Amino acid sequence: MKKAKKCLILSIFAHYCIHLPNLLILIMDIKKAFEAAFIRMREKNWEKIYIAVDIHDTILRACYENEETYDYFPLAKEVLQMMSLREDICLILWSSCHRDKLMEYAFHFLDDDIRFDYINENPEVENTHLQNFEEKLYMNVGLDDKFGFDAENDWAIILHVLEEYQENCRRPNDQ
Known about the structure:
Elements: H1 2-19, H2 22-44, E1 49-53, H3 76-85, E2 89-93, H4 99-111, E3 118-119, E4 141-143, H5 154-164
Parallel strand pairs: 1-2, 1-4, 2-3
Helix pairs in contact: 2-5, 3-5
């Protein structure tokens, strides 16, 4: 009987693994990352979490060979605007673009009501005897296509998680 149960469970598992779209796997990952960050923030009594966000193929559709079009992925602009207002989120623009181009992006995002607190750094978290944040910035969640972020779908997932974790929503000067 035990062997039959194991076979049935494995069969069901294999069935769902084969038939589950990759999207569902990615949804669970980005949702888990944000939920874990908010839960840890509460457990550790932190004031905020740190979100590092890449530009190309994460916020904007990449156009490496042409003039920048600022073609946002669905919900990217709205979710980043929402994050910009929250006092429990520190947004970090994280990109390998040259500094002058990064500043262009930062000013354009600011015009779109998206405020990044830092660019390629997180000076709020200091080194400890075990950790060196001078060479690798501290973040709770990284949004980057190279990490598996699916910009076509994951912004909607993040929106739902942010709505679930709405405490401390507005920065003091935005109330």
